[in-house]
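Limitations

Structures in this collection are predictions, not experimental determinations, and the ligand pose is part of the prediction. Treat each record accordingly. The example that follows, with heme C as the small molecule, is included so readers can see exactly what is and is not provided: the inputs are given verbatim, and the output is the predicted complex.
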Amino acid sequence: MNDKWKIILGLVVFLAAVTFPVWRGAIAGAGEPPELQLPEGKTKCIESKEFMIDNHMNMLDEWRNMLVREDIHEYTSKEYGDTYEISLNKTCLNCHKKTEFCDKCHAYADVEPYCWDCHYDPKGD
Ligand code: HEC
Ligand code: HEC
Ligand code: HEC
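Predicted complex:
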């Protein structure tokens, strides 16, 4: 291999590495994550944002078990110590809009929670 080809090869590898974040999204077909509408005037969730992203489904599961099986109606934040009523509608969906928040991210992540067969969206829709 002469030097000219080495330079061209080096350049191709370099460009591929630099543009990786762009074409990775294109290959996955997912595009950019959606813009999520956060509640106005609120600065924190029940637990930290990172915890909520990873664990909100487990939290809801835990909430359902606490309420239905143990008749516990309140949840105390492990992170902040605030107390919340255990309710998908009255608590989560009091702050968050189902359509502009939950649904948008689920469409992006390609998950379809079946909860809404029974639970209603308090903000309409
Ligand atoms: C077949 C109907 C049905 C489906 C589907 C369903 N639930 Fe429920 N859920 C109920 C009923 C009934 C209660 C008890 C309500 C009560 O006692 O106030 C309940 C209670 C709850 C509670 C505690 C009280 C409240 O109002 O939030 C949570 C949290 C909950 N469900 C979450 C979920 C989640 C998350 C899903 C989806 C993964 C889901 N449920 C799917 C029927 C359903
Ligand atoms: C008091 C208002 C409030 C309540 C109640 C609330 N949230 Fe949040 N939530 C927020 C705010 C504000 C943020 C953004 C936090 C941040 O950016 O640090 C957030 C962030 C989140 C995120 C992460 C979103 C992201 O940025 O990717 C998820 C998921 C979430 N909430 C789900 C829930 C669920 C599920 C419930 C009910 C179990 C709930 N929230 C209850 C206000 C609330
Ligand atoms: C930042 C993105 C994001 C937001 C915002 C979000 N979710 Fe999720 N949700 C996910 C992902 C990703 C999964 C699938 C996780 C898995 O399968 O491990 C999921 C799963 C769930 C599940 C379990 C579904 C199942 O079939 O197992 C429930 C219930 C749920 N979300 C409820 C909510 C509710 C209610 C809100 C709005 C208050 C919300 N989510 C907001 C990303 C999000």
